[in-house]
Amino acid sequence: MSEKKFSQNIKLFILFAVFLFAFFIPFDSVTISASIGEAFLMLSEYARQHVLLCLIPAFFIAGAIMVFLNQQAVIKYLGPKANKFVAYSVASVSGAILAVCSCTVLPIFKGIYKKGAGLGPAVSFLYSGPAINILAIVLSAKVLGWQIGLARTIGAIIFAFIIGFIMHLIFWKDDEERLSDEKLFQYHGDGERKLWQNLIYMSSMVAILVFINWAPSKGSMAFWDMIYKGKYLISGVFAIFLVISLILWFKKEELKDWVIATRDFAIQILPLLFAGVLVAGFLLGRPGHEALIPMEWVSKLLGGNSILSNFIASFSGALMYFATLTEVPILQGLLGSGMGHGPALALLLAGPSLSLPSILVINGELGFKKTFTYISLVVVLSTFAGWVFGVIYP
Length: 394
Hints:
Layout: H1 3-24, H2 30-68, H3 71-78, H4 84-92, H5 105-114, H6 119-131, H7 134-144, H8 146-179, H9 195-212, H10 222-229, H11 231-249, H12 252-284, H13 295-301, H14 307-319, H15 327-336, H16 341-350, H17 356-366, H18 368-392
Helix pairs in contact: 2-5, 2-9, 2-12, 4-6, 4-8, 5-6, 6-8, 7-8, 7-15, 8-16, 8-18, 9-11, 12-17, 14-16, 14-18, 15-16, 16-18, 17-18
């Protein structure tokens, strides 16, 4: 089947799906009307809270990685043939630096993947980015108990290693073919700048992303709250460093390429994210607000420590969207409603790193087979870890 014919069939399928949706959905139902309202309210919250301060800085970082980062260096340290211990160590602990959600990490993941990183290290980064957030780990221990906080930390780091390495073992041939494609090398990187100049430039953008999204501790963590109170000032200082580096060390043509690459990432990712947020809001609603699927169903299914309850926790967590740190109060409420400790850990390991919006974007970049494998690994490993934890800590 030709690519044009395949594209036309996809469009026809989408039109047919929209027709079925419009024909059969009872829009006069109170539940359906409320669910539609939740979908757009969730999209509104997402646009206000995450697009300007999270996604746009992430798009610019991804564009910079694509245009300016030295491709040979990426392949050397994160490519399929790189030292496995170094590659997976760097990728697996990256979340300690980037306090991002499952959607904000996507542009950066796409940037390093398109620049030549191997599938394994790139996927390790994709998982660890939202999962190993220092403040989220601390809050988990403080609010949900030190046992869950410790188990989440250990589980997330180990999972990042395992998931990335298994993806590498399964798809290493595809990775070699991808890196042999000359189109991958369309950008050649760092120009005439020295390493320390590129380091200042990239670090400034990462620091802006981290500090401008710094969340309060909701407790007695004075150091974290001190940073939170001064987050705009700190972000402003790094913004000054960024502007100075752009003026002194970059050519006009390079900056144009950077903006174009950033625009391309936004065009590729935002429509899928917005569609995913709408669907997630329609089905599950915002935290504390019910939509089509009542939360009491979820609570009843997550009691005890059976394999099924842990699987449901992992699977539902993989579909739900969690903004950074919101998983902690949500879990606190579910535990109060009778959720078991094992399913709680399973949801913590699967939820922050996946969501329906992020799945759509990952599928667009990796294809169905790799995306399905990645989701399956996250859900299965989270289910097993939750069950073991529930046996140890009932």
